[in-house]
């Protein structure tokens, strides 16, 4: 069975938690886009694991794949691999020879470009993501397969410095030498994991192995479909699996879209249902909404049904995973955006394009108010785990039903606490047998 888990808001929907929950049933867990901009959190007992490059499925699966669509900082990866191997010593690691390499130069350009953008800053994670994808598409990038040659690394670093002129003028020949050496050394440590992972995944598919794809970022951050330019530099929609991992989209059986019961966002750009003031503070504190990668306070807002419909369309979502429902229950009243209303014409948009969200100043968001279901404490959590949906407060069941009705998609996974066990699946979700 081939299953994909992707974000359908602005990232940080809880993909890491959902992937970890499912991953014990799959032979392979695969990241196919992004790099260290991703921060995927998994909480097991008292332990909190934060994944940036290694798939969050690495705690429980047998094989992880860092596929060609990723941009990988190999020096950071060496440390991350060490950390996951301490927990899962038998884990096999497969890194695509075709993935692109993030270097100190790319991080420096990322920071410099942000500085030069001035007021139109994107609020990137400063992890060199954009500049590395730029070098990929301009065909100047360094690939994982280049790390085996000192001279190839240094030639490419020099070419990048030459082309980026002003942006890298503070990098001396000695710096290039130093960066090249550390990349080469990290390449030596990773060498044993490098292979054509596209071939591996196609072989696994033909042997009927179960593969779980772990998306990074979210549909509204997609380079094509997101709220450009406030996006990341890769595609984030499920269709990118074809290019980012080399396994055709036609082989993916189920695409699960992960969403919070509300919306959070880090970085700049339009956010139709954003809250401000004390309501925002309350929701942010209730959900501990601070970035996993950067520690930045996240912007927060009510669930945005029009945006959700758009993401479901562009990522072709089959089923929903709804997280952080315990957090939302801590609000006294719950609202959700159900349409964008044009201020001049009064036209109601319920099935928007990204362009509507980008021009949200032309629209009022029409809200619906709902009753809160209150706190979900640990004893209620246990009851829900034991007895399923039936043990949930009726207002919460109504909320989930309403999401299903408004989006035309069933809820397959429900999450009501950050710990692994505070998750239930519904009959709508078909999974491989437990291993
Ligand atoms: P990702 O990038 O999509 O993997 O999400 P992040 O890990 O960046 O952010 C999601 C945050 O919400 C993390 O701190 C998770 O531990 C937390 N989380 C996930 N699901 C739930 C949930 O159902 N309830 C609560 N309270 N926290 C959750
Ligand atoms: P996960 O996988 C939340 C946002 C950044 C910024 C924009 C561009 O944890 O959900 P970049 O560094 O990619 O060039 O930044 O995209 N962004 C994310 N926001 N979660 C993420 O990943 C993100 N990855 C990128 O905040 O606004
Ligand atoms: Mg995250």
What does this structure look like?
The protein is built from 14 helices and 20 strands. The longest helix is centred in the middle third of the chain and has 18 residues, at 173-190. The mean pLDDT is 97. With 435 residues, it is an alpha/beta fold. The chain folds into two domains: 2-73 and 201-425, Adenylosuccinate Synthetase, subunit A, domain 3 (Adenylosuccinate Synthetase, Chain A, domain 3, Alpha-Beta Complex), CATH 3.90.170.10; 100-192, Adenylosuccinate Synthetase, subunit A, domain 2 (Orthogonal Bundle), CATH 1.10.300.10. α2 packs parallel to α6 (173-190) and α3 (104-117) crosses α4 (129-137). Helices cover 34% and strands 20% of the residues. The chain is globular and about 65 Å long. A hairpin with a 7-residue loop joins β19 and β20 (423-425). Strands 9-7-5-2-10-1-11-15-19-20 form a ten-stranded mixed beta sheet, sandwiched between helices. Strands 14, 16, 17 and 18 form a four-stranded mixed beta sheet that branches. It binds guanosine-5'-diphosphate (GDP), 6-O-phosphoryl inosine monophosphate and magnesium ion. 6-O-phosphoryl inosine monophosphate binds at residues 7, 10-12, 37-40, 122-125, 127, 129-130, 216-218, 221, 232-233, 266-267, 292.
Briefly, what is this?
The chain is an alpha/beta fold. The chain contains 14 helices and 20 strands.
């Amino acid at each position: 069975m081939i299953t994909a888990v992707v974000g359908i808001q602005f990232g940080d929907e809880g993909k890491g938690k959902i992937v970890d929950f499912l991953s014990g049933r799959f032979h392979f867990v695969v990241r196919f886009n992004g790099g260290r901009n991703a921060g995927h959190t998994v909480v097991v007992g008292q332990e909190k694991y934060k994944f940036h490059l290694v798939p969050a499925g690495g705690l429980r699966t047998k094989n992880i794949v860092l596929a060609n669509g990723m941009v990988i900082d190999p020096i950071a990866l060496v440390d991350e691999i060490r950390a996951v191997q301490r927990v899962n010593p038998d884990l096999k690691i497969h890194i695509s020879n075709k993935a692109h390499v993030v270097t100190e130069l790319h991080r420096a350009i990322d920071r410099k470009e942000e500085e030069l953008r001035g007021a139109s800053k994107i609020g990137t994670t400063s992890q060199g993501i954009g500049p590395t994808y730029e070098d990929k598409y301009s065909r100047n990038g360094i690939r994982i397969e280049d790390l085996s040659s000192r001279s190839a690394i240094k030639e490419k670093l020099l070419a990048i410095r030459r082309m980026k002129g002003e942006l890298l003028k503070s990098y001396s020949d000695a710096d290039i030498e130093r960066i090249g050496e550390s990349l080469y050394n990290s390449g030596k440590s990773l060498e044993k994991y490098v292979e054509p992972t596209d071939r591996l995944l196609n072989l696994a598919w033909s042997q009927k192995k179960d593969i779980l794809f772990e998306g990074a970022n979210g549909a509204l951050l997609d380079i094509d479909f997101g709220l450009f330019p406030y996006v990341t530099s890769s595609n984030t929609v499920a269709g990118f699996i074809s290019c980012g991992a080399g396994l055709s989209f036609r082989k993916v059986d189920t695409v699960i879209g992960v969403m919070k019961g509300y919306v959070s966002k880090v970085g700049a750009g339009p956010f139709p249902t954003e809250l401000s003031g004390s309501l925002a503070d309350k929701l942010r504190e209730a959900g501990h909404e601070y970035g996993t990668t950067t520690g930045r306070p996240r912007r927060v807002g009510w669930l945005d049904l029009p945006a959700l419909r758009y993401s479901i369309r562009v990522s072709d979502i089959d089923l929903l995973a709804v997280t952080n429902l315990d957090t939302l229950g801590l609000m006294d009243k719950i609202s959700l955006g159900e349409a964008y209303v044009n201020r001049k014409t009064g036209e109601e948009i319920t099935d928007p394009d990204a362009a509507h969200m980008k021009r949200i100043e032309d629209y009022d968001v029409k809200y619906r108010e709902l009753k809160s279901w209150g706190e979900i404490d640990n004893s209620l959590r246990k009851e829900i785990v034991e007895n399923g949906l039936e043990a949930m407060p009726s207002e919460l069941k109504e909320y989930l039903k309403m999401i299903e009705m408004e989006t035309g998609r069933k809820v397959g996974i429900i999450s009501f606490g950050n710990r692994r066990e505070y998750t239930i699946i519904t009959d709508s979700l078909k999974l491989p047998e437990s291993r």
